[in-house]
Amino acid sequence: MTTTAVRAPDVERRPARAPRRPAERLRRKITENLTAYGFLCAALICFALFSWYPIIRGVLLSFQQVNFVTPAEWVGWQNFVTLFNDPLFGIAWRNTLIFTGLALVIGFAIPFAVAIVLNELRHAKAYFRLVVYIPVMLPPVVVAILWKWFYDPGPGLFNSLLHTVGLPPLAWLNSADTSMLSLVLVATWSAMGSATLIYLAALQTIPGELYEAAELDGANVWQRLRYVTIPQTRFVLLIMMLLQIVATMQVFTEPYVMTGGGPEDSTVTLLLLLYRYAFTYNDFGTASALSLMLFVVLGAFSALYLRLTRTRVQ
Amino acid sequence: MRTLISPWTLRTRRGRTGYWLVFALVIALFTIAFVVPLVWMLLGAMKTAPELARNPPTLLPEHFDAGAYTEAWDFMDLARYFKNTVIVAAGAWLIQLAVQVPAAYALSKLRPVLGKWILGLMLATLMLPASALLVPTYLAITDVPLVEVNLVNSPAAIWLPAAANAFNIYLLKRFFDQIPTDLLDAARIDGAGSVTTMVRIVLPLSRPILAVVSIFSIVAAWKDFIWPLLVLQDPEVQTLSVALQRFEPDTPINLMLAGLVIASVPMVVAFLIFQRQILAGLTAGSLKG
């Protein structure tokens, strides 16, 4: 991604064909713009139809009752009232926040710790990079079905392993107490490769002199970690945390494939509820109201992320 | 390169012992965490269904029999779903390049009136969580505005929304920005039009970023689940992910495992071949995007 090319200054420099008369200049300006919009038009159509228009429509739908037979009817806040009266709404928020929270505790700390250790190792680097990233490449449905089999309380891999080391079996997905944790473990396993390698790349940019200087000042390993490594990677950590929050609050594939929301609604997430409203109850209005709420919450995180990364780049 | 642990510590006897202990531990943990599950899947597909139901499980299959792979291929008609997935992924890739490269080129080098606004509006869509748009985009697919066609069950239902990817356009534009304008001016003086300049000058210089965007779009299309689940409802046209999930409840587990392996192989092979580009794209995308 690094080119040595120096960016040319943005000055008008077309000495070969400098237009003389204003009319000609205007005509050239118009041709140039027509060409540019020719290049842009496919993208503009795709964005308009499948991005910009749905955004506006989504907001409108949140306040409408739609059944696709009679024209959409304006119902004000009715869809939101329906949501607040649905006991699953509160459960879904709670479950999603539990998932996001557990994913932060497990899925945020582990990749960073792993990256710090990997950065110290001088051998088998290619092997570590390879195996940690393979789960990221697997389709999420494959991972979910595979882990569902691992979690099987009978002959499943995990209970067999627990049995081998003399521990009692767990119910994993079959108990409301462990179901969410089980989903977080799958999600962490399948996603940690990218976080680990991103942290590793960030750790490699820390100048070695900082560690040397800290060591000369008498800092031990923990102090070097605390006062050199973490401050130097703070930006990446923050970015990854924001990205992870946004991603985990939209968790869908794992609960949909592995538990279907059960047992006892313990894994009904916001997206699963949204899916049910839209595609089981055909209540697109209420589903849109739920989308709008998700958007307001997650949009704040995404906006912060974009702001941070863009200002940092420029 | 100097890291957390000083090279002098590593040179002492204690440091060396500690290093190799940690190294052995990390190798063991990585192998258990990331290799064992995959090997367990490969071995599981070679066991028979009764053997898989046994508790405690057998470590190695009693008879190494790869028959489950061919049986799964026929039982679930995987050829069809494999073909569907290839169509979806290849189409998504081609359409994305065809739409995004010219758009990024126009925004970077042709700089039309309102170009900044258009880029801003595109980037603004990145702020939206993908799930917030599921319902209205689905409705736009069932009845595409203005032309009034229903794209449900057509691969275009995946291709066209995929083309509206602001992130790829942003990556491409940023790369094109670094190509010196002098070079393009020189081409223009030699009589090259905008299309020729893009194809002959900009694209050959942009191979690294084109590789990243290509891999991103193919991998994303292959792995996607929720969107194909919504828009590919007819079993005939479903992708591997959607079909496997549908078959999961009533398929013998050994056949299911074989199906999982078959669905994963293209992605793992692609990773082994394009590892460098994929990992380069990973850091480019997350830190600088």
Short characterization:
The complex is a heterodimer of chains A (314) and B (289). With 314 residues, chain A is mainly α. Chain A has helices at residues 22-61, 78-85, 87-120, 125-137, 140-150, 157-164, 179-203, 208-216, 221-248, 253-259, 270-280, 284-313, and strands spanning 64-65, 73-74.
Written account of the structure:
The complex is a heterodimer of chains A (314) and B (289). Chain A has 314 residues and is mainly α. Chain A has helices spanning 22-61, 78-85, 87-120, 125-137, 140-150, 157-164, 179-203, 208-216, 221-248, 253-259, 270-280, 284-313, and strands spanning 64-65, 73-74. Chain A folds into two domains: 26-78, no CATH class; 80-313, MetI-like fold. Chain A is built from twelve helices and two strands. Chain A has a two-stranded antiparallel sheet with strand order 1-2. In chain A, a hairpin with a 7-residue loop joins strand 1 and strand 2. The two termini of chain A are 16 Å apart. The relative contact order of chain A is 0.11. Mean pLDDT of chain A is 86; it is low at 1-13. Chain B is mainly α and 289 residues long. Chain B has two domains: 7-70, no CATH class; 78-288, Orthogonal Bundle (MetI-like fold). Chain B has 15 helices and no strands. Chains A and B meet through helix 1, helix 3, helix 4, helix 5 and helix 6 of A and helix 2, helix 5, helix 6, helix 7 and helix 8 of B.
CATH topology of the largest domain in chain A: MetI-like fold
- The whole-angstrom Rg of chain B is 25 Å
User: How big a fraction of the residues of chain B is strand?
Assistant: under 5%
| CATH top level class name of the largest domain in chain B | Mainly Alpha
Uncertain residue segments of chain B: none
Order of helices and strands of chain B: HHHHHHHHHHHHHHH
**Morphology call of chain B:** flat
Q: Structural class per helix/strand content of chain A?
A: mainly alpha
CATH-level-2 architecture of the largest domain in chain B: Orthogonal Bundle
Q: How large is the share of residues in beta strands of chain A? A: under 5%
What sort of overall outline of chain A do the alpha carbons produce when their principal axes are compared?
flat
Instruction: Report, as a whole number of angstroms, the end-to-end distance of chain B.
Output: 27 Å
CATH fourth-tier homologous superfamily of the largest domain in chain B: MetI-like
Number of helices of chain B: 15
Radius of gyration of chain A: 26 Å
